[in-house]
Write a structure and sequence with these properties.
Chain lengths: 529, 359
């Protein structure tokens, strides 16, 4: 029978056992453990993935012909390609591969692997296919346009008139990743090009190979010894920790080396901890408000202009957005090629009132503003509601689930929608092609952002196409500068902010300097002392 | 006497036939209710999938897909067919066990459920053990000390468990026992150094590590489980203790209690054997409901503790408009409740002689 003495003895034993069970605080020295939210990963096949976390993983796993390397993120250099030539017609591109590059299986990389990998993106017709479709590569011609000349030489042709800079930038995206053809085909099912298998496996010559992806749990990568550049961290583990406060505790405890998705209050708290540092990097997003020109009031350029003067850009970045966002009133993120620092708008109620009076709305009007039910979108919407109210514009905020908001936007049912956009590749056309270009305003689905807002402007279309075809980089910059100003001042948007990416890490971790797009987040340079 | 004896040979086959007919009626009733529940589930999930203002194709192809990709997927999802036809295709697939592939994980929904459910089961069982093993005795003690300090402690302790947000409780628990004292391991089911060490048999790491003889892994898993299990257990305890107290108070006011005490039985025996014995039927319902709600998945606990269970999976599926996963999860939860109902029925007959007599 359990008496008081045996109970006390049992309790003492149990507490001794628990106290003796030391938590493993430090992570292994050759391993970087990252806490993040990675529940957006749905596949790790480079021919299919198109989500933020997936791109970061794939970018570290697979190599491509050319890329912006960690050592100098401002310069496009050969990755798998030793050198390349662009034909005089700007339509034929020939690449010589580096010698002796090896896949994780030990097989040598050939031009056939590269050609097949590029072809499969188009033939599978998954999300990233549109990147290469722009070059004129379609299912019925891609095998003729992309070819291995010999084991070491790849040649492809494009049918559209595009600047070679833009074509090379497309090759630097994760869609340009090279997969080992033999391994992928050995795991092919029903002619899927190995897609099902590659969702959870890798066949790579890149810096890391994929050890495992457990959906909503973790991704584990291990250095690929065949990679041609040094890989300082041998193992990378990304753990899905949905709650930022939990990420903070794990970072403080030393169970993770980096925490990627801490919120501003947690960042403030950990910044003062003695073993933790917080670095802030620019990110490529654009936070803006869509103005649907299907609404008679918003069709008036003066009303759009007045609305731009009714946003307290500086007030927001100096208060609740401090340290996480900067003001950016262009469709190109700061850090992108051809970006210009153009910020003509600030809160000016008198000017806005004058513009509204000229437009025939001296007493303002009532309008709906939709946004996702997420912080800080809701706070931004509230600030806009307050400042627009100063000029008599009554803003009704309608918050909703992300897909609900986007569904309305794509159906052109919105009036104003506050939302964010991330670019697809590191070339100005990626955003110009969606913010400015709309070559067919007919009701159909789905089309770029300009179409969603019923913005159909011949001149913007012509300027976009001229810039993307321009081969002289300097002239290209000038063309984009003109287009940026036009869209900022006349387009169907209030362009507002660019986010920053704060990363909290243990002080013994160094070498992590991500670029502004997910393609340029490198694990191989990270070290731990 | 003789009349009874004479009737006995005739009564026996009648009783057997009656019992068999009763059994058939019971099975038919059960099957009927299961089928109706199941049909209802499919109808509701199908209708929800069609009426929510979310484009199901968009959920698959993403915001940036081209028109051709959009149209291809639109047809692949049979959205070009009449609505009734869509429902029959949907029902047929579910009946064949095809819940389809989850958009969120790109894995078959069934394999996802087989992965996440054991995590939830492990957590729920540990929480239930805490809830039942402590909740019932505390409830009894509170009832026997009605109005006195032990009763107040249990009542206010339960009230605290009811009213404190589990989210906050989880974070505070982590802060104290993981971050400050270092008594337990942190979030997740296991340390990275033990990851993938034991082969998956049941999906429950504690059980699998014991099967594999990996005792270090077992203790690590226990150390990860103890905090979320205790916190969820505290919430169950609060409910179980309050209900036990209330049932016991009713029993303790019954005349048979006075009679048994007057007969000379010890108060301990009267309370813990006779009175408690009479509340088991009600308690089984309470425990089954508690277990059911635990098995649905504790979204907030799973979020705070990065516990990859059913609750988190369902929450993510709903937010991602991943209808295949939502349907799969809903059917699983429906099945859990049906099984729990059946198990409760069986236990009723074991603990209540009247139920046995009725059958």
């Amino acid at each position: 029978m359990l008496n008081r003495r045996t109970f006390m003895a049992s309790a003492t034993t149990l507490s001794t056992l628990l106290a003796g069970y030391e938590a493993n605080a430090a992570t292994p020295k050759d391993t970087i453990v990252i806490a993040s939210q990675i529940d957006d990963i749905i596949t790790l096949d480079p021919g299919e993935e198109y989500e933020v976390s997936g791109q970061i993983v794939v970018s570290n796993v697979y190599d491509r012909l050319v890329r912006y390397e960690a050592e100098d993120l401002s310069k496009l250099v050969g990755a798998m390609a030793q050198s390349w030539e662009v034909g005089k017609d700007n339509k034929t591109f020939t690449f010589k591969l580096r010698a002796n590059q090896k896949f994780e299986s030990g097989a040598v990389v050939t031009a056939e692997d590269v050609a097949w990998s590029l072809q499969r993106v188009v033939l599978m017709d998954k999300n990233p296919a549109f990147l290469f479709n722009q070059l004129g590569w379609k299912k019925d011609n891609v095998k003729d346009l992309v070819k291995a000349i010999d084991a070491n030489t790849l040649q492809f042709k494009i049918t559209e008139d595009y600047s070679p800079v833009m074509v090379l930038n497309l090759m630097a995206t994760t869609a340009g990743s090279v997969v080992e053809k033999k391994v992928a085909l050995a795991n092919e099912k029903n002619g899927d090009f190995g897609n099902e298998w590659l969702k959870t496996h890798s066949a790579t010559s890149g810096a890391y190979k994929l050890v495992s992806w457990k959906a909503n749990e973790s991704v584990t990568l291990e250095a690929n010894p065949g990679f041609h550049l040094p890989v300082k961290t041998k193992r990378v583990i990304i753990r899905h920790v949905p709650e930022p406060a939990t990420q903070r505790l794990m970072l403080e405890k030393g169970d993770v080396d980096m925490a990627w998705t801490l919120q501003s209050d947690q960042l403030k708290a950990v910044a003062t901890a003695k073993d933790i540092k917080v670095d802030t990097f620019a990110y490529s997003g654009t936070w803006y408000t869509n103005l649907n020109l299907g609404d008679e009031r918003l069709k008036n350029p003066k009303v759009r202009s007045a609305l731009r003067y009714l946003v307290d850009y500086d007030g927001m970045v100096n208060t609740f957005l401090k340290g996480s966002y900067i003001v950016n009133q262009t469709f190109l993120p700061k850090g992108f090629p051809s970006y210009i620092d153009y910020k003509p708008y600030k809160l000016d109620v008198a000017k806005a009132k004058a513009l509204l009076a000229e437009a025939g709305y001296p007493n303002g009007f009532e309008i709906k503003l939709q946004c996702k039910n997420l912080s800080p979108l809701t706070e931004i919407a509230q600030s806009m509601q307050q400042t627009m109210g100063l000029a008599g514009i009554k803003v009704n905020i309608v918050t909703g689930d992300a897909k609900q908001v986007i569904t309305d936007l794509r159906a052109r049912r919105h009036q104003m929608t506050l939302i964010s956009w991330t670019p697809d590749y590191l070339d100005p056309h990626t955003n110009a092609g969606v913010f400015a270009l709309n070559d067919d305003n007919a009701d159909d689905k789905p089309k770029p952002l300009a179409w969603r807002n019923r913005y159909f402007d011949e001149q913007s279309n012509a300027m976009t196409m001229a810039a993307v075809k321009e081969t002289d980089p300097k002239k290209r910059d000038v063309l984009y500068a003109e287009l940026i100003k036009r869209i900022t001042d006349q387009g169907p948007y209030i362009l507002m902010f660019q986010p920053l990416t704060p990363v909290a890490s243990r002080k013994n971790v160094s070498g992590y300097k991500p670029g502004i797009v997910e393609d340029t987040y490198f694990f191989r340079t990270v070290t731990k002392s | 006497m003789s009349a009874v004896t004479a009737e006995t040979p005739i009564a026996a086959p009648n009783g057997w036939v009656r019992r068999f007919a009763g059994l058939v009626r019971q099975v038919a009733g059960l099957l009927g209710s299961v089928s109706l529940t199941f049909l209802g589930l499919t109808c509701v999930t199908f209708v929800i999938g069609r009426v929510i203002p979310i484009d199901p194709v968009l959920a698959v192809v993403g915001d940036k897909a081209t028109r051709s990709t959009y149209e291809r997927v639109f047809k692949e999802m049979n959205l070009d067919r009449p609505i009734y036809e869509q429902y029959f295709i949907y029902l047929k697939k579910i009946l064949h066990g095809e819940f389809g592939t989850s958009l969120m994980t790109a894995h078959p929904v069934l394999s996802d459920l087989l992965r996440v459910f054991p995590a939830t089961l492990e957590l729920s069982v540990s929480a239930l053990i805490v809830g039942v093993c402590l909740g019932i005795p505390l409830g009894v003690v509170a009832a026997t000390h009605n109005g006195r300090w032990p009763d107040q402690v249990v009542r206010y302790g339960s009230l605290l468990g009811y009213s404190m947000p589990v989210f906050w409780l989880g974070l505070v628990g982590l802060l104290i026992f993981y971050a400050k004292l270092g008594w337990v391991e942190g979030p997740g089911r296991i340390d990275i150094s033990f990851d993938d060490l034991v082969p998956t048999v049941t999906g429950m790491i504690t059980i699998d590590s014991l099967i594999a003889g990996e005792y270090e892994t077992f203790w690590n898993a226990i150390s990860h489980l103890i905090l979320p299990g205790s916190i969820l257990g505290y919430l169950s305890l609060a409910y179980v203790a309050r209900m036990t107290r209330s049932f016991m108070l009713t029993q303790l006011r019954q005349e048979y209690v006075l009679a048994t005490l007057a007969k000379g039985l010890s108060p301990f025996r009267v309370v813990w054997v006779h009175a408690l014995g009479n509340v088991w039927v009600q308690l089984i319902t309470v425990i089954a409901l508690t277990f059911g709600s635990l098995l649905e998945g504790a979204v907030l606990t799973e979020t705070v503790f990065a516990w990859p269970g059913l609750g988190l999976y369902m929450k993510n599926s709903l937010f991602a408009a991943d209808l295949n996963a939502v349907v799969g999860g809903t059917v699983l939860i429906g099945v859990i409740y049906i099984i729990l109902n059946m198990v409760s029925d069986v236990i009723y007959t074991l603990v209540d002689p009247r139920a046995r007599a009725r059958k």
